[in-house]
Amino acid sequence: MTEYAKRDIIFLDEIGDFYCKHISAMTGEGLHSKTDIAAELGYRDYRIELLSKALRSLSKSSKNISDSLKSGDHIPDFRYYNFEKHIKEAKN
């Protein structure tokens, strides 16, 4: 399987304008070279990885909270829950 498959651009636009908005932005911002485009894709991969790690961390915390509630332990007060902690941990 290749890294870059042929994509259905009509489908991408039908579900959320995911193709045309990028063509317009790339043209408007002068992103024409493969290097510029690869740098942008790399940055997006980095952001996706951070968000994936944060989601895994939140999921783990959610399970821990759920287990605590099932066992009758202390019910956490989410007004003071530090969600930013999960994003910072994802960066490490």
What can you tell me about this protein's structure?
The chain is mainly α. The protein has a domain at 49-91. The chain contains 4 helices and no strands. It has helices spanning 9-16, 20-28, 34-71, 83-91. Helix 3 crosses helix 4. The chain is elongated, with a radius of gyration of 20 Å. The relative contact order is 0.08. The model has no long low-confidence stretch (mean pLDDT 81).
Give the arrangement of secondary structure elements.
Elements: H1 9-16, H2 20-28, H3 34-71, H4 83-91
Helix pairs in contact: 3-4
Task: Write a brief caption for the model.
By secondary structure, this protein is mostly helical.
Low-confidence parts, pLDDT < 50 over ≥5 residues?
Answer: none
> How much is the average pLDDT?
81
N→C terminal distance: 30 Å
What is the N-to-C succession of helices and strands? HHHH
The strand count comes to 0
Beta content: under 5%
Oligomer status: single chain
Instruction: Give the biggest beta sheet.
Output: none
- Total helices: the number is 4
How would the global form be characterised? elongated
Helix share, percent: 55-70%
Rg value:
20 Å
Keyphrases for this structure?
92 residues, 4 helices, mainly alpha, 70% helix
